[in-house]
Amino acid sequence: MPTSLLGPYTRTILVAAVLAVTLGFALSGARSEVHGGLLPFFEWLETTWFGYVGKNWGAAFALIQSLHLLGLALLGGAVLAAEGRILGAVLTDVEQSVVTARCDKVFNIAMAILVATGVFMACGVAVKIYYLPVYWYKMLALGAGALFHYLVRQPLLARGPEQVNPWLLKSMAVASIMVWFTVAATGRWIGFSG
Predict the structure, then answer these.
(1) H-helix or E-strand spanning residue 1
(2) Which candidate, 69, 90, 78, 72, places its Cα nearest to that of 153?
(3) Where residue 32 falls among pLDDT bands split at 50, 70, 90?
(4) CA pseudo-torsion sign 15, 17, 22, 26
(5) Would you place residue 2 in the very low, low, confident or very high pLDDT band (cuts 50, 70, 90)?
(6) Does residue 96 surpass a pLDDT of 90?
(7) How many CA atoms lie within 13 A of 56 on its CB side?
(8) How far apart are CA 7 and CA 23, in angstroms?
(9) How many Å apart are CA 25 and CA 139, to the nearest integer?
(10) pLDDT per position as a tens digit, 40-93
(11) CA 103 to CA 32: how far, in whole Å?
(12) Contacts of 189 (CB under 8 A, 6+ apart)
């Protein structure tokens, strides 16, 4: 990407702009028009095999939900360990690049678990979550978290800790913790909303 126009933080600026536009769209009235076109898709999700199992086999839904929660704990642990190391709060006796590289592997596994189990759980209650505003906020937070992790955090850490301002690294770590806490909180809020 050309860096002359936006400077050395081109990806960061572009991701922030996309998130700002998405958040503005989510809080505007135009959101309901887009959601209206998705209702047939959500109705179809309930008719799939996953939807049938999710609605009619409570034990299967509970098992998948427990795997989802374990994936969330795995993701949270990876985020807290990696960002805690960047902040100098945990694992200070281990090289920062080693901790972040290993936590990224765990993070990717946790994301795969969360997406797979989340799709299954959504199929079982698709029409219900369609009408929950907090579900859309969770999807927005999840998208923001994934964009932040893969397009801002990883390229920044790929430069090496010596190449990046320490305050920028610490700010990035705090932002990462906040984003993933928001994902977890909105996910839990879905459980209280329905």
Answers:
(1) none
(2) 78
(3) low
(4) positive
(5) very low
(6) no
(7) 8
(8) 24
(9) 13
(10) 887 887 888 887 787 778 788 889 889 999 999 999 999 999 999 988 888 888
(11) 38
(12) 134, 137, 138
d(CA 184, CA 189): 9
- Nearest CA to 152 out of 10, 6, 12, 2 is that of 12
| Tally of CB atoms within 10 A around 122 | 21
Closest CA to 6 of 14, 181, 87: 14
**129 φ, ψ (degrees, to nearest 5):** -75, -25
**Pair 46, 126: CB distance under 8 Å:** yes
126 falls in which pLDDT band (50, 70, 90)? confident
State yes or no: pLDDT of 3 exceeds 60: no
Nearest Cα to 123, choosing from 64, 82, 83? 64
What pTM does this model have?
0.75
